[in-house]
Design the sequence.
């Protein structure tokens, strides 16, 4: 594959680093991407080299600011070095190279990536956390879509690329407005420009694709379209958008035999997640200020990860649904259709943590800080009596264990508290009880 830069071309960055072009990886609307190796550390990086018409002074200023301020968190393949040969000629930037085992959302839809439900939720959590940190730093992404997100199906780790169009929130100049099908209705209609609120809409579309493998607005109305031209797209995504699962408007329901993914997967998830999607694509279509925030998504995904049950008959992952428990509706395995008995669980605030021999307690559970990586506790099984389980304190603080008779016992770091119904634990910031 030939491009603007030949294999073996040597380039010197503004940071005085020397890079050698190894091969071309691909091309897009703004430029070409190459694999390069740095002479200094011998590591391989990616180089995005702009076409002449996209190598504008405005783009360079954006890159200068991004490199100066640095990445919001480790999930971003952030610009880190700028390469410019001569003034008024194409330039490019260096970013980390994406590992080959990371998959795209398109791979997920084509079944080329099949993560477990747990790691799908973990990927959604990490993705949302990345955009949360981006927005917290005062940026807007402007182009959340399929092509900019990759994930590891075995760990749920994510990588967000194409960050060269990130700008401070509130920036009103031209440039990127988004990708068709992902743009907020007000952008499609030409009423607004990109913002954090339009990012939230695009994020909701991407999350819906991840969980339902279907676009949230593509149901019966999309099936009727014979020519998906600009006018049809404007109606479907801008002037007349209708959520396929809108509880009040049934006109755009998915069609069996055509949009089966939307029908099948919608039934697998707890009501709490479905309510967030309903809000995103009913109120959120017309009221940008009422769109689902990153924190709302993070709370939902943490509960999804903590509430996974395993079917004892077929081994399928089943989500605990608080709504079903409150309304005395049985949990049924989606795979073998047998009823699932809900295991013991630890309830901390709105978190329902299903207790299995592999359950871990994270900082978010006891502090509400959206940290689902730092382990502060884990289920421990008594080696001499497998029927006896406990919760081991792996945090740096002592817990207070309160028995059903009111007796209180401290649980220091490394100690284990017995899991028993109607017993509670004071973790400091929050308290929980076993059910």
Sequence:
């Amino acid at each position: 594959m030939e491009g603007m830069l030949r294999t073996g071309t040597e380039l010197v960055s503004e940071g005085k680093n020397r890079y050698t072009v190894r091969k071309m990886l691909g091309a897009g609307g703004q430029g070409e991407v190459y694999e390069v190796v740095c002479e200094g550390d011998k590591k391989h990086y990616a180089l995005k080299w702009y076409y002449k018409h996209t190598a504008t002074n405005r783009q360079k200023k954006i890159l200068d600011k991004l490199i100066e301020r640095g990445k919001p968190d480790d999930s971003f393949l952030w610009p880190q070095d700028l390469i410019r040969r001569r003034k008024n000629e194409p330039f490019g930037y260096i970013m980390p190279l994406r590992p080959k085992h990371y998959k795209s959302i398109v791979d997920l839809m084509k079944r080329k990536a099949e993560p477990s439900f747990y790691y799908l939720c973990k990927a959604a959590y990490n993705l949302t956390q990345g955009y949360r940190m981006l927005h917290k730093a005062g940026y807007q992404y402007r182009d959340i879509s399929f092509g900019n997100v990759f994930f590891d199906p075995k760990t749920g780790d994510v990588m967000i690329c194409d960050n060269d169009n990130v700008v401070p929130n509130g920036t009103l100049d031209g440039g990127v407005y988004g990708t068709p099908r992902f743009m907020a209705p007000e952008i499609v209609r030409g009423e607004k420009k990109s913002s954090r609120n339009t990012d939230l809409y695009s994020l909701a579309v991407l999350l819906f694709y991840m969980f339902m493998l279907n676009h949230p607005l593509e149901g019966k109305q999309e099936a009727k379209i014979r020519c998906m031209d600009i006018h049809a797209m404007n109606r479907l995504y801008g002037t007349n958008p209708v959520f396929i699962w809108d509880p009040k408007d049934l006109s755009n329901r998915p069609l069996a035999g055509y949009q089966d993914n939307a029908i099948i997967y919608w039934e697998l998830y707890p009501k709490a997640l479905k309510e967030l999607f309903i809000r995103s694509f009913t109120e959120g279509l017309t009221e940008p200020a009422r769109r689902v925030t990153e924190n709302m998504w993070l709370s939902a995904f943490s509960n999804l990860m903590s509430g996974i049950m395993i079917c004892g008959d077929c081994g399928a992952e089943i989500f605990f649904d608080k709504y079903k428990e409150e309304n005395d509706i049985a949990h049924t395995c989606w795979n073998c259709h047998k009823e699932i008995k809900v295991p013991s669980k630890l309830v901390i605030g709105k978190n329902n943590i299903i207790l299995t021999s592999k359950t871990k307690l994270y900082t978010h559970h006891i502090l509400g800080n959206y940290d689902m990586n730092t382990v502060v506790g884990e289920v421990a099984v008594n080696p001499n009596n497998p029927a006896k389980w406990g919760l081991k304190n792996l945090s740096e603080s002592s817990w207070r264990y309160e028995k059903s008779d009111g007796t209180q016992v401290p649980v220091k770091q490394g100690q284990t508290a017995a899991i028993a119904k109607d017993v509670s634990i004071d973790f400091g910031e929050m308290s929980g009880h076993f059910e």
The longest helix spans residues 117-136.
